[in-house]
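Form P-L/3: holo structure prediction, ligand S-adenosyl-L-homocysteine.
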Amino acid sequence: MRNDFSSLREKMVEVQIAGRGIKNAKVLDAMRKVPRHVFVPEELKGFAYADEPLPIGEGQTISQPYIVAYMTEMLELRGAERILEVGTGSGYQSAILAEIVKEVFTIEVVAALSERAQEVLKSLGYINIQFKIGDGTRGWKDFAPYEAIMVTAAPGSVPKALQEQLQIGGRMIIPVGVDYQELVLVRREEKTFKETRLLPVRFVPLVSLH
Ligand code: SAH
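OUTPUT (holo model):
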């Protein structure tokens, strides 16, 4: 049996992603393509396609593959979007998004993580990702509004600034809660924000610097 990274990745998609009900072809293709092992620390490469989150340094984690796929699918991306991501971390989720949409704007508060992610993503040839080092709780006004926003660290409640940077008809997926967290889908309608609770999750906290 071939046991190299691409066959492990194919198996990951078959068992953990498609096998658990993810159907969106763009999401499945992106998960098949992006080399997750390049985003994890050297000593953990052997676990890169396992069904679990992994430490990436600085007390942070790269999410479980299924959660990455699930959050991406829930944004109903078509391909022409400009998307804001809060919590660049390893850059893996940024790569998945960059495979699908036109442009990704990603913010990370830990400079060392952003710098490493930038190196990895550039070495893989991504040119449609813009990086910012800073507090993503405030969003990234210069390029707002966004058709979609993905937050990969958990605040106690949905940050107002992020809601405001969502375009009408736009979607945001965000883990919310302190002790108990749930993934929440926020949809901006003409005059209101509609929130749907999806499933219990465990993310690192979104740190707020103000
Ligand atoms: N999407 C990442 C997972 C990142 S874990 C991946 O694919 O690897 C969450 C990340 O959010 C951590 O790197 C953490 O440093 C970052 N973070 C926490 N609070 C933040 C904030 N206020 N603004 C931006 N990034 C933040």
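COMMENT: The pocket of S-adenosyl-L-homocysteine is lined by residues 56, 60-63, 86-87, 89-90, 92-93, 107-110, 113, 135-137, 152-153, 204, 206-208 (CB under 6 Å).
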